[in-house]
Amino acid sequence: MEKKLSHIDASGNASMVDVAEKAVTTRIARASGKIIFPATVFKTLQGQDFLSAKGSITQTAIIAGIQAVKKTSDLIPLCHALAFSKVAIDIVPEGEALKIFCTVKCNGRTGVEMEALTGVSVAALTIYDMCKALSQDLIITAIQLEEKTGGKTDFKRV
Asked: Which residue out of 18, 74, 90, 129 is catalytically annotated?
């Protein structure tokens, strides 16, 4: 089977995929990413339970990530607007970093991997925004799809 770009029509123009004939299935995607801190900054934040003068860093990032998932079709031009049944953002310390996970679920005709990736990205950017007063030496990295199910092909990173 020959693979081809799904958002480019026969003339080479951008095109939204027609999903009208696809079956409605439960679609789930999980993405992850990481924001790495300088050691002294991470230690300071951890000692304050990740609270800043602006509020809880992790809870603010969780809310921002959920909002971003819901706005993905406004940000990425060829994404479909979807009705989600679940959006979950988890943020856990890992070494001198915060690891971010976003899980998105819906019953629909198209996948939710772009939404999961967007949720992780905006959660990481929110953490950066809340912590940049301590240091601009923050690294957002390793944003990737971990797994997706429910479409034509399933995927699981090994």
From this structure: 129
